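User: I'll paste a sequence; please echo it back and then give the predicted structure.

Assistant: Echoing your sequence first, then the prediction.
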Amino acid sequence: MAKKEQTTALRPFGMRDKLGYAMGDMGCGFSFQLVATFMQLFYLQYIGIKPTPDYAVIIVISKLWDAVNDVLIGNLVDTKRIGKKSKYMPWILIGGVGLIFLTVMIFVPVTEFPYWGKYVWCLLSYCLWSVAYTMVNVPYGSLHSVISDVPEHRTALSTFRSIGASLPAVVIMIALPSIVYDESTNAAGEKVQTLKGATLLPVAIVLSLVALLVLWGTTRLVTERVKREDKGEKVTGIRAFFGAFKAFFTNRAMVGCTLATVASVALFNSTMSLNNMVFQYFFNDAKKIPLAMVGSYAPMILVMIFMGKLASRFGKKNFVAVSTLISSIGGMIFLLVPMQPDMTGMVLYIVALMFLNGGNCVFQIAVWAIVADCIEVSYRKTGKAEEGSLYALYSFFRKLSQGIGQAIVSLGLTAIGFVEGKNAVQPQGFGPKVKSLYMIILVVGSFITFLCMKFIYNIDKQTEQSFGEKIDANEEALALNEMLEG
């Protein structure tokens, strides 16, 4: 079992830890949400990159780069201690400084570059941004498992992390549409909603500075209480690289959680640009995009209120599986409901989003505690303190799923006839098609998440509760294996 420092030397777990941990994902979120929501729109609609194959290739290359980048940084976090008091905090601050410059770089309006120059700029800036984001996100995510090993504490941290992640999304979705969209006339003489790409540069500067400030807040408020010591041979270099893969893929719970995450991130988080297009081309009013926040965040608020009690009563596995199944069924029903591009149709659309996002909100709020449990399982089975490497691999698959989601969006838009470029004229019937495309993607994502959590992920309520118990070290591995296999 993980060793702890003397409790007399440490402050008890409390609200300070929860707020500090929430600030960490808030800092990551100001950069991530801006990139996830607007980078694809910026390069397709403003810069003029073709969605397929050009933009899709950029995403594939950047994710192949992440496959190496994430694991290397995870191993660095595990093996290179650059701070005296903390294994994680110095890396968070270094990465936070990098995020300022590289988030800004992504949104430099390179409209005067030749096409190949635009292409290289997009690829290079996104790959470098991924390095800085990993340098923040891997130590921050690993931090969860060492703040406390009590299941209720981990669920609370997961909930507060979700609150921290939600605030940047709310700010970006509510404040930015009125800033970055305008009404103009296209080549066919039609009034359309146009992305003002140049406005995203000052937005990126402001949000990046805010991100660094709140990341600094995390380093000042959070206390690390669980100290893990390697019981086996200390491994570095190429052996550590491949050893992390072995530990990851032999952990069934981690595999199940990761597959569910791929579905959730690829088909929910990374397809938000389609929601913008629904308002832009179906409802023809991009400035009403903030109304969609009701469909996304009303269920999240409800889940946050009851998450601790429901997860404790039913176990995170069962709570997530049931919720995502209900969302899948509700989403399929709403796909059959006729919607018109008027206010009544908009209300129906937002209600449909509430059903579709309900189960995903449960998973997104619980997932950080779930990942901490998966890391706990690995440590108790192997005796190796590899939280940085394991979380880095999990982070890689999260980022890979972002690429998968953006590639799906690009392929889907091509399939329904999207025309790239400023003031482009879209084909007749494009609005209803983009609405249906978005809702189908959300239904599929919800159902895949259900399958993964129900049939692959294997940490049940009994196993979760065992993490907070003090049992004999010689019996620990045997007891854990019996619970996971039983």
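The domain at 10-485 is CATH 1.20.1250.20 (Growth Hormone; Chain: A;). Strands lie at 3-4, 181-185, 191-195, 226-227.
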